[in-house]
Amino acid sequence: MPNKNGSVYGLTILSPITRSVHGSESHSLAIRQCLAKMPRDSESPFAKVSSTHMARLVVMDDVVFFGAPSHEEHLRSKYLIFESNFDGDLDEYLKRLANEARQEVHEVWRHCEGYPGLDDKEAFVRYMKKCQVETTFFFADVNDKTVEQTLQALQAQSAVAAFIEKNQGKPPEELQKAFQRFIESLQNARPQPPGSVKGKELADE
Amino acid sequence: MSILDPTDIQGFTLRGYTFPVARFLFLKISDTKKGREFVTELVSKLTTGEKWDKTHRPRTTVNVAFTYPGLVALGLPQASLQSFPVEFVQGMKARGAILCDVEKNAPQHWDRVWQEGPVHIWLGVYAESAEELEQKCAELKALAERSGGLVVAGMQDAAALIIDGQRSTKEHFGYTDGFGNPDYSGVDRDSQNGQGKLSPDGRTWLKLATGELLLGYADEAGELPPAPVPHLLANNGTFMVYRKLHQNVATFRAYIKEKAKLYPGGEKMLKAKFVGRFPDGTPLELSPDREDPAIVKDKSRNVDFTYGADPDGVRCPFSAHIRRANPRDAFGFHGQLINRRRITRRGLTYGPYTSECEPGDDSAEHGVIFMALNASIFRQFEFVQQQWIEYGNDARQGNDRDALLGRHDGKGKFVIPGTDDAGNPPFICGGLPSFVQLRGGDYFFIPSITALKMIGLGAVDPR
What's the whole-model pTM score? Predict the structure, then answer.
């Protein structure tokens, strides 16, 4: 299935941006301003919608004409491109966007043609799916693990490295005890929040 | 293949000199006209790329390079100046954030000559003896000062280390240095297997495209590297990165000693894992357990290896310096991902060597003058420095930096993958301090002889 790779969904949505008429605000500029100010890292709307691996929002003005001999073509409107790699089902993901990143989604998509608003969640999901195009091919760095599993693995990797560094060379009995304590602390460790850049090291063994 | 004209290319660009002593003079220009006159007079003294034979080996060499402010001071036309790549225009200081030249490596810790306004000219002088070096430098200094429009603002001595009374190819940490530089198409030099790029069969080696080193020739992408106009200014020229790297010898020796207490392979093996070569130069990929002088001496073998048969890094760690800086086939695709990231190194040590029996000293004046040549500082040197030395993702080492050259704050780690073999277990070196600190440098343009004549005449015409 071209929109999926392993358990990860590669979503592509192209939403036509409302044409600006003389004297009114430029909708593409409004989107660009909104994107430029969008919070990042753990404050990002995509950190709130925690099943997102990676996402990108871009304004596409037109296709580029490189000059003869290429054929000159133009888009009928400007488009908002939304790319996202996420875990699970598409409908559910779009509903999570509408619920958990409500403000940002509305700030961006209110400049798009046909956007129904967020009061009627079903209508929003229908609208987004109408704008969907088949992804066909996407960069899938993590295919079979959820965001949560990936973050846990990174945390474990960094903790194991720290454990080895601290305990290498110890006699077997001492090492085994330390390892048991370590495994316990690893199991009880609080998961890292999505959008946190660096893996946090576990406190002591 | 382009036929190169070695009489038009500076010798330093085409070959690494093996003289025992060198001095780098840093000049500043105060008068455009006099600066040009100096360049004109200098041209006849320069060493070109012509091949030497045993009977015609010079006793000294002289080469010249300019920073962007140097070219401005020489009055190059605005249209030419504005056509130089942006990283060269900005200079190395301004690129600090990209290069990780921050904190202990930041410009406030650099030598004075780099702090007092921009250096304009680099003169590289190499010699067979200290006396001949003095004489040649005095001659050049007199030439500069006689012009009335230039001053020698600073200088840097460099020399091969003398260890136990013998001239050595080692650097201060005790590693044999200077193995292998890339081979380029058209450059007449004794080539060695392992020095160019891997051929599609993954075993034999081909020469890299000329345009990875020289401006005006096709590079590995079949494109001309970005270069200034007119082409006469750019052709046969290259860019040089000059970095003075201070070595914290005491910190390095103490760290290795401390970690080797726990590391079953012992001190020598631990040192080998850091670099990917034993101190005598034996590559771990070819001899993972012991130094082998026969390999080191054998030019057909000492740079001819790949990492394909060591996918877990149990011979040469992913993070070892040579595997990071020149990953060969480590990223797959028969090495094709790295062919546009190669640099040519022209390094030389400075300062006296401290015997291995002593703990060494961090504050003494000693280190390596690292000079790298490449057609694009942005695409080649800066990429290697940023992605492969100061970051670990391509080497599959997350945020880990190069253990030896990276900027550390006492928290970094170096992972040594291992096997079930008791002598080669996995090991993690934590709490890495900075072993190397930057003490200055800049980005330079090394023009061709033709370009130098045009610059001297004030005849660079970008139209």
Answer: 0.93
Q: Which residues of chain B does A150 touch, with a Cβ-Cβ cutoff of 8 Å?
A: none
Q: A165 CB near a chain B CB, below 8 Å?
A: yes
d(CA B77, CA B84): 12
**Angstrom distance (rounded) from CA A35 to CA A32:** 5
B415 in contact with chain A, both atoms CB, cutoff 8 A: yes
pLDDT by position in tens, chain B (length 463): 678 999 999 999 999 999 999 999 999 999 999 999 999 999 999 999 999 887 888 999 999 999 999 999 999 999 999 999 999 999 999 999 999 999 999 999 999 999 999 999 999 999 999 999 999 999 999 999 998 999 999 999 999 999 999 999 999 999 999 888 999 999 887 788 899 999 988 889 999 999 999 999 999 999 999 999 999 999 999 999 999 999 999 999 999 999 999 999 999 999 999 999 999 999 999 999 999 999 999 998 999 999 999 999 999 999 999 999 999 999 989 899 999 999 999 999 999 999 999 999 999 999 999 999 999 999 999 999 999 999 999 999 989 999 999 999 999 999 999 999 888 889 999 999 999 999 999 999 999 999 999 999 999 999 8
| CA nearest to A9, candidates A193, A154, A138, A179 | A138
Domain ranges within chain B, ordered by starting residue: 11-165+224-242+445-457, 244-440
Adjacent-strand bridge partners of B412: B432
Domains of chain A: 4-130 (3.30.70), 145-205 (no CATH)
Helix A172-188 vs helix A147-167: crossing angle, to nearest 10: 150
Q: Predicted ipTM?
A: 0.81
Q: Hey, of B318, B393, B428, B432, which one would you mutate to test binding to chain A, going by the most A CBs within 10 A of its CB?
A: B428
Task: Note whether B270 contacts A: Cβ–Cβ < 8 A.
Answer: no
